[in-house]
Write a structure and sequence with these properties.
Two copies of one chain form a homodimer. Chain A contains 17 helices and 23 strands. Chain A is α+β, with helices and mostly antiparallel strands. Chain A has four domains: 101 residues, Nucleic acid-binding proteins (OB fold (Dihydrolipoamide Acetyltransferase, E2P), Beta Barrel), CATH 2.40.50; 189 residues, Bira Bifunctional Protein, Domain 2 (BirA Bifunctional Protein, domain 2); 127 residues, 2-Layer Sandwich (Gyrase A, domain 2); 102 residues, no CATH class. Chain A is globular and about 95 Å long. Chains A and B meet through strand 1, helix 3, helix 4, strand 6 and strand 7 of A and strand 1, helix 3, helix 4, strand 6 and strand 7 of B. Chains A, B: Belongs to the class-II aminoacyl-tRNA synthetase family. Type 1 subfamily.
Chain lengths: 601, 601
C-alpha cells in the first residue's frame, strides 16, 4: 500500500462529466464494485459526489503493474487513480448513473487502504436490522440515502442561518452546563467536582437564557441549539435533539409569525423545491380540537369531526343520554366508502380507540335510501339522516359515532381520523399543509397535583384582554402561544413572553407558588424583569423532525448522524458505559445498588 | 404602561442618519440618559445599533400628555417613540455619536416597561467587580463593548461557515452524550437513568466521531462544537468551550495547512480588516523550543535564546561545567537596554524563573568597552565577548545566562523572553504574527507512569519515514502534527491521523497497551479502520480565544455570553446547585459525605 498521498486528487467524481473528453484527472474514493471481463477490469469508484466507471485495460494503455494491482481490488478498498476521461461507446452508456456517458481509463493507481468485506452492502434499500446499521454507523452513513440526509441538513442549516442573519438576528451560544429547572421534563444531571454535592443540568431548551438575552438588549437572537430531555424514550424520541431557537424583542405576534412563515416557506423552496403558500392559515386550539380532534391536525385531508349531539338529543338511547346529561359530547366521523365494513372491521376500529378511553363507536352504514346500524332501533331513520347530514356522509360511507367526555372523544376520534386518512389513502403525500395553532389555554388543571399548571411554560404571556381572568377564571385564559404544524407534526412552538414582573407574579400566583417559592425557582428572572425588559417572544423549531419531513424519511434516527436507540444507547461507541471507581470518587458520588445486600439499621 | 405593542418599530437607531430629514420613524429601545433643560426633555435612546437623541418639546409639537410621560422616564426604561428625524442646529451637533447630526422630535411615546436603577452604569470602562457583572450578566451584556463582542463572534462564525461551505465541507453534528474516553483530560459524567450504574461523558472534542465521519465517506467535515473538560480551572479556562472542528480526507498535510491559512487570513481580513500574509511560516517544534523556549512563540518580537555552551566550555566556573557534564544546556537571553539594572531588578528576574526550576541567572552587563558581571572573574573578557556576540548583545544590553537541564532552561527563558517583551515594550501590538509549529515529537516518556504517552493523542500519524522508529526509538518519532500559533497563543492544533490498523496497533504497542487493552479502549475505531478508511487529518481551533484576540480582549470570560467563574459557577442562574433527593434516587446515585460519620468495618 502507498504511504501517504502520492496522487493528489484533482477532481471529484461528479466533475468528470463537466471536463472536456481527454482531460487527465486524479480521482480518489472507494471501490463500489469490481468486475473482470476477459482481462479488462471495470471498477465503479465512489466518492461523496457519486459513482464513475474506471477502466483498467492493457490495450488502452493501463500499465501491467497497474493491471496487477487492480486485480487485487475488492469492495470498499480506498484508492486514488490517475486517468483520462473518455466518452463511452454508445452501447455501453449507463443511464442509471450521472456519469454514465463517460468512463476513466486508468494510467496509475494507488491503493490507499484495504477493506474487509462489509457486514452489509453499501447501497440503499438494504434489508438490515437497525442495531447492525447503528453499530456500523460509519458504514451505514456511506449509503447514498444517508449521505443525502447529511447534505440536506447542511443545506437547511445554511439557509436558516442566512435568512436569520439577513433579518438582523444574532447567533449567540448559551451554556450546556446549566441549572436544573423545575416545571419541566426530567433533567440530565452532571455532578460538579469543584462543588461536591452540586449538579449542573443539561438544558431542555435555552428558554431562560434567550429571554435574558432579550433583557440584555440583543433584540434578535437565534441558535441551532442542542437540547436534552431524560424522558422515557418512545420509538421516535432522542435524548439529545437539535432545535432552531429564536427570540426577538419589539415585534408583536403577528409580525413575528409572518416572519417565521417566510423563513419556513423559504427553507422548503430553497432546499427541497417545494412551494408553500403564505400566510399560513391559523386555527385556534379549540377549533382544531373540535374539528380535527388534535392540536396538530394533518390538513392534507379534511374529514372533520361533526358534533351530532343535537341530532340525538331526547332519544331513548341510554348511552347517549347519559353522556349528554353529564356534559359530554357526541361526535361523528365519516369513513368514506366503508359502508360495507364487516363487524370484524368495525371491531378493529373500536379496539383502536379503546386505549384513548373511548369505550365504543356506534357505526351507521349509509346506503342508497337507508341506513344500517345497531343503534337504528333507538334513533330511527330521521335522526340517522340528520346525523349523516351533519357528518357530511354520502351513500356508501360509514359514520362512526363516539360519545363520552370531551377530553376522551376528541383525541380518540382525532387519532381515528388520522388512521382512516392513512388506511383509506385519503392523504396526498405530495402536499405540505402548514397551519398555526393559536390561542392555546394558558393553564390546565392538574388533578394529581391539585393545582393549575402551565400548558406551555410559566413565562407564556396571556392575551392582554384575558389577564384579569388569571385571578378569577384561570382555565379561561388564552395564551399568546402558537405551534407551527405541518402534515400532522408539530414542527415548532413558541409564545410571546411575560415581560413585566407584575404579570409574572400574577402567573406564579395562579400556579399556586408562594412569593418565596417563585423567587426560589426563578429569582434571577424576576430580578431581571425589573431592569428594563422589552416585550419579547420567540419560537423553537424541531430541526430533526423538519429534516425528516424534508427528506421524506420515516424515523428521526435516520436523520441524525449518530443517533441513540430507544434505550438511549449509542451502539457504535458503547455509551453509556460503566466508569472507573476513581472517576466517581473524585466526584464524591456513588452508584446505589438496586437491592441493598444488608438492611440498614 | 402600554399593554403590548401599539407603536410598531419602523427603523433602528442607526438607520436615522440614512433617512431624509422630516421622515417619520418609530424607534424602540432603552433610555440611556434623560435631561430636562428648562422644560425641554432630551433622552438618549439606545437600541442594538447605537444611540440617538430624542427631543420632547411642547414648542416643537410634542403633545402635553407625551411631555408628562417623558417626565417620568428614568435610565433603562423601555420605550417606543414616534417622531420626526430632523437635522440638529450646528452648535448642538454631537460628534461623539454616529447619529450626532440629527435628533428625533417626539410626537408619541409608549412606555413599554419601567426599570429599577441598575447596579452599575450601562457603559464601557466601568470599574465594577467581575462577580457583580456576572451576576447581572443581562445588564453587563447591554454595554457597547459586550454587544460588539457578540456581533464579532456572530460575524466570525458566519465567515468561517461560508468559507467551509464554499470549500465543500459539510457541517455534521456529533453527540454531546457520549462515551468516557481514556487517555484524555477529566470527563464530565452524566448518569444514565435507563442503564443505572452507567454514565455518558460529555465530549472533550468530537475527535473520534470526526474520524468516523471520514471512515463514513463524508470527506470534508466541520462543526462549531461545544467541548467540555473537567480541569482545575485556571483564571482563563472555561469548563465548556467552543471549537471550530474540522476534518478532511485525501488531502496531504501541505494542502490542508494552506487551506487553513487561507481561511484564517480571510477571517481576519473580513471581520477585523487585518491583512495577514500567507503562507504562514513554519517552525519545527525543536527549533521553536531552542530559539524561543516555547512551542507557542510570540513572534511580534525577536529576542532569541542563544546557545552559549561553546563559549563557556572549559572554564573553571563549576556551575557551567557541571551542567555541561551532565548533558545540560547553557542559553543566553538579551534584555535590551538593561545594562544598568540594579541587583534588585536582576533578583526579580531570577525570582521570575525560579518556579520553572531554574535556580539562577548569570547576568552580564555589556558596556562600551567592557563587561560587568559576577561571573567575569571565572570567564574572563574574551569569553564574555563571545557570549555577548552569540547573544547579539549591544553595549547597554544585559545578557542573562541560564544553565541547567534543557527541559528546565528552555521554558524558563522562554517565559522570561515573553516577560521582557512585555515589560520592555518590545511588542508591536498592532501586529498579528502567525506561525505553524510542526514536527512535534509523537511520544514523550512519562516517568510517573513508566511508559511512553502520546503528546497529541494516540491517533496522530507519525511521519512516514519515522514509522520504523516506533519499535526502536519511540522518542525520536516525529508526528504529522501542527499547531497554529498567533502572538504567543496556540489558536489551533491538529494532525494527520493514523488510518491503517497496522500502524495504529504499532502505536498502541509503543504506548504499552496490550492488544486487549487497546481493543477494550478503542475497539470500535480499530474495527472501523478495517473497512476502508481514507487518509485523513484535521484541526480544531479555539474560537473563544480567537474572538478574544480579534476583539482585543484580555479575558475569555469577556468573549462568552454566559461564562463561568474559575470555580465553574454560573453566578447568574446559580449553577451548579443541589438537586432534589428524588432526582438522585431515580438515577440510583447518591452523594458521598466528605467525612464519613462512622468508620467502616
Amino acid at each position: 500500500m502507498t504511504q501517504g498521498i502520492r496522487l493528489r486528487r484533482t477532481h471529484m467524481v461528479a466533475d468528470t462529466i463537466r471536463v472536456p473528453g481527454g482531460t487527465e484527472v486524479v480521482l480518489a474514493g472507494w471501490v463500489q464494485r469490481r468486475r473482470d471481463l476477459g482481462g479488462i477490469i471495470f471498477v465503479d469508484l465512489r466518492d461523496r459526489t457519486g459513482l464513475v466507471q474506471l477502466v483498467f485495460d492493457r490495450e488502452r494503455g493501463t500499465p501491467a503493474a497497474v493491471m496487477e494491482a487492480a486485480d487485487h481490488l475488492r469492495n470498499e478498498y480506498v484508492v486514488a487513480v490517475r486517468g483520462e476521461v473518455v466518452a463511452r461507446a454508445p452501447h455501453t452508456v449507463n443511464p442509471k448513473i450521472a456519469t454514465g456517458e463517460i468512463e476513466v481509463v486508468v494510467a496509475d493507481l494507488d491503493v490507499l487502504n484495504a477493506a474487509k468485506h462489509p457486514p452489509f452492502p453499501i447501497e440503499d434499500g438494504i434489508d438490515v436490522e437497525e442495531p447492525v446499521r447503528l453499530r456500523y454507523r460509519y458504514l451505514d452513513l456511506r449509503r447514498p440515502q444517508m449521505q443525502q440526509m447529511l447534505r440536506l441538513r447542511h443545506q437547511a442549516y445554511r439557509f436558516l442561518r442566512r435568512f436569520l442573519d439577513d433579518h438582523g438576528f444574532l447567533e449567540v451560544e448559551t451554556p450546556i452546563l446549566t441549572k436544573s429547572t423545575p416545571e419541566g421534563a426530567r433533567d440530565y444531571l452532571v455532578p460538579s467536582r469543584l462543588q461536591p454535592g452540586s449538579f449542573y443540568a443539561l438544558p431542555q431548551s435555552p428558554q431562560l437564557f434567550k429571554q435574558l438575552l432579550m433583557v440584555a438588549g440583543v433584540e434578535r437572537y437565534y441558535q441551532i441549539a442542542r437540547c436534552f430531555r431524560d424522558e422515557d424514550l418512545r420509538a421516535d424520541r432522542q435524548p439529545e435533539f437539535t432545535q432552531l431557537d429564536i427570540e426577538q424583542s419589539f415585534m408583536d405576534m403577528d409580525e413575528f409569525l409572518h416572519l417565521m412563515e417566510e423563513m419556513v416557506a423559504g427553507l422548503f423552496r430553497e432546499v427541497a423545491g417545494i412551494e408553500v403558500a403564505t400566510p399560513f392559515p391559523r386555527l385556534p386550539y379549540r377549533e382544531a380540537m373540535e374539528r380535527y380532534g388534535s392540536d396538530k391536525p394533518d390538513l392534507r385531508f379534511e374529514l372533520p369531526l361533526a358534533d351530532v349531539a343535537d341530532a340525538v338529543r331526547g332519544t331513548e338511547f341510554r348511552v347517549f343520554q347519559d353522556v349528554l346529561a353529564r356534559g359530554g359530547v357526541i361526535k361523528a366521523l365519516v369513513a368514506p366508502g366503508c359502508a360495507g365494513y364487516s363487524r370484524k372491521q368495525i371491531d378493529e376500529l373500536i379496539q383502536f380507540v379503546a386505549p384513548f378511553g373511548l369505550k365504543g363507536l356506534a357505526p351507521v352504514a349509509v346506503e342508497e335510501g337507508g341506513f344500517r346500524s345497531p343503534v337504528a332501533k333507538f334513533l330511527g331513520d330521521e335522526r340517522l339522516r340528520a346525523i349523516a347530514e351533519r357528518a357530511g356522509a354520502q351513500p356508501g360511507d360509514l359514520v362512526l359515532i363516539g360519545a363520552a367526555d370531551r377530553q376522551v372523544v376528541l383525541p380518540a376520534l382525532g387519532a381515528l381520523r388520522n388512521k382512516l386518512g392513512h388506511d383509506l389513502g385519503l392523504i396526498d403525500t405530495s402536499q405540505f399543509r402548514f397551519v398555526w395553532i393559536t390561542d392555546f389555554p394558558l393553564l390546565s388543571y392538574d388533578e394529581e397535583e391539585g393545582r393549575w399548571v402551565a400548558e406551555h411554560h410559566p413565562f407564556t404571556m396571556p392575551r392582554w384582554e384575558d389577564v384579569p381572568l388569571l385571578d378569577t377564571d384561570p382555565g379561561a385564559v388564552r395564551a399568546q402561544a402558537y405551534d407551527m404544524v405541518l402534515n400532522g407534526y408539530e414542527i415548532g412552538g413558541g409564545s410571546m413572553r411575560i415581560y413585566r414582573r407584575d404579570i409574572q407574579e400574577k402567573m406564579f400566583t395562579a400556579l399556586g407558588f408562594s412569593r418565596e417559592e417563585a423567587y426560589d425557582k426563578f429569582g434571577f428572572l424576576l430580578d431581571a424583569f425589573e431592569y428594563g425588559t422589552p416585550p419579547h417572544g420567540g419560537i423553537a423549531f424541531g430541526l430533526d423532525r423538519i429534516i425528516m419531513i424534508l427528506g421524506g424519511g420515516q424515523s428521526l434516527r435516520d436523520c441524525i448522524a449518530f443517533p441513540k436507540t430507544s434505550s438511549g444507547a449509542d451502539l457504535m461507541v458503547g455509551a453509556p458505559s460503566p466508569v472507573n471507581r476513581e472517576q466517581l470518587d473524585i466526584l464524591r458520588i456513588q452508584v446505589r445498588q438496586p437491592e441493598p445486600t444488608a438492611p440498614k439499621a
